[in-house]
Amino acid sequence: MTMVRLSELTIGQMGIIEDVEAEEHFRQRLQSLGFRIGKEVRLIRQALFGGPLHVRIGSVNVVLRRNDAATIHVWAEG
Amino acid sequence: MKRIALLGMPNTGKSTFFNRLTGASARIGNWPGITVDLLSAKILLGADMVETVDLPGIYDLHGFAEDEQVVRRFLQNNPVDLLCVILNATQIDQQLPLALQLRRLGLKAVVVLNMVDEAERLGIRFDALVLAQGLDCPVCLVSAKYGKGFLETREALRQSLAETSSVNTVALQADFADDEALVAEAERLVARAVALPRLLEHDLTERVDRIALHSLFGIPLFFLALYLLFQAVYTLGGPLQDGVTWLLEHFRNAVLAPLLAFLPSWLYGLLVEGVYDGLGTVASFVPVIVLFFLGMALVEDSGYLSRIAFLMDALMARLGLDGRGFVMLLMGFGCNVPALMGTRVMRSRGLRLLTMLIIPFSLCSARLQVFVFLTTALFTPAKAPLVLLVLYATSFLTAFTTALLFKNRLRSGEPLLIELPPYRLPTLNQVALRAWHEVRHFLDRATRFIVIGVIAIWLLTHLPTGVPPGSPQTLAGIFGGWLEPLLRPIGIDQQMAVVLLFGFVAKEIVLGAMAVVYGLEGDALSQLMAHQMDGIQAFSFMLFTLIYTPCLSTVATMRSESKSITFTGVSIVWSLALAWLFCLIFYQGARLLGF
Q1: Model ipTM value
Q2: I need a labelling partner for B309 at 20 to 30 A (CA). Which of B301, B356, B507, B516 fits?
Q3: Residues in chain A whose Cβ is within 8 Å of chain B
Q4: Tens digit of pLDDT for each residue in B285-309?
């Protein structure tokens, strides 16, 4: 397993969250949606023209932008 | 009277639950300590009337979003006897920490697991007894959508209320360290009380999203859906509108005219040609409005809106906005006021103000009435829908231009984080209820603004006495004369200038005002309009109506939401300037080209 940023996962790839280095407010929002250390998160798709990412964490589907996803470090599977 | 506060995350079906519980008798009220409107209703529980308040959806009691502050301020300033915490059963693992956080407030509580029907379909099983133990309060399993579990819930609420002694407001201290412990506690509780299937997948949602969020077809499909929605509204609404117009005309000629013939002619004129014709012209649009809001409610409740935010974010990011801003423009198609209030979810002031600045350009249902009326009167049936389409395109164009020009002044660094709820087909009941709320709002406005507006216009076009009604010697003519130098270059004459003046109050008045200014209604008014102006003038008038300030309610909302008179002023002046400029370029350009 290698450590990458959430934004660097390939479509369909899963990662285990290792660290969230976002600013305080954003980190709290992420946490309330389930982004916590040790959780599995999967990249589902990305919008065209450098648009946002669609990721799934537990039963929740979330949209976030690439640069914000880059603040989340994950252990990539495979 | 005892008070219950409804709390929960967004997308938990809290509003649906509230509507079921209270029978949709809710009223908007003012609350100490907070400036936003909250819905509340009095319900009978056992032998006592109890007040139920629907608080905004929150993710975290310690969060920094405006809604989260609203909830904190409410709890600090208003005594609450019982908390009713709504959780989305399909996401119980994510939502329990909030429930535990709320339990720490020390208030009596009843926890409602909503959407149990959906959870069951996904294979999630609950042990309500273990949950109740862990949460130390009653837990009810409910499907608010289908009305299941409400008898038990009402009983649980009644019992819990009966056990409460008088409670005071709570002292809230943010104990962030404690939050981590709550998450661990929630995980232990879920492990004990909930059986989650290994793979939690909404099959249907997955499959629909593969098409709806497709990287190439997603956006075209959205515009196709939008087009079909409007097409359906007009195809169904057109004949209904004709029917209402026909009814109103016959009622006027067969009943009203003979009945009121004894009145002095000025009073007859004011009542029949002023109030009745003015209101009638507006009322004939009620069927279209109802259909329109039914469609909007369907889209809103289906879960598709957040997908649109996903699809449009890349474009909106380049305009200094985000995908939610586009969704609010769409909401503005119904009415700009709730769209403006919807910007509360944005925390960055720059982003919020920029979004608020572009919402008034969204072609709302009130302006739509004016455009439908004028396009039908002045253009062929083949051309009329095209003209409307151009107006919708202009609506986006002006919004985007405004964003581009102001984005460097109103900067945002706010991260985008939105949830994609599973697709849900709303029940007929839900959609009808939502549409009814909108229509009631429309009728409220109608009675408040339109009657006063039409009477004022009738007086302006008929005073002073002794001059021909509507002539340049009347008050309206004099006002129109003042505006003429400004409006002549864009092809708008004195009489229409007066109409625009009143359109500032509310666009619903515009049609009523035309009826009164010309002393005609229905088909007769359409025919006269077709003689009074040509297509170019009519389009210029519509452009101006589209772009300049939507209505007083929008201005008032803008003022209260932005808490800045300067910003509100800039918005008004900017939209007036943009309207005039657009019309000038269009009108003079068209004339130069020889149209």
Answers
A1: 0.94
A2: B507
A3: 22, 25-26, 28-34, 36, 45-52, 54, 58-65, 68
A4: 778 778 888 888 788 778 888 999 9
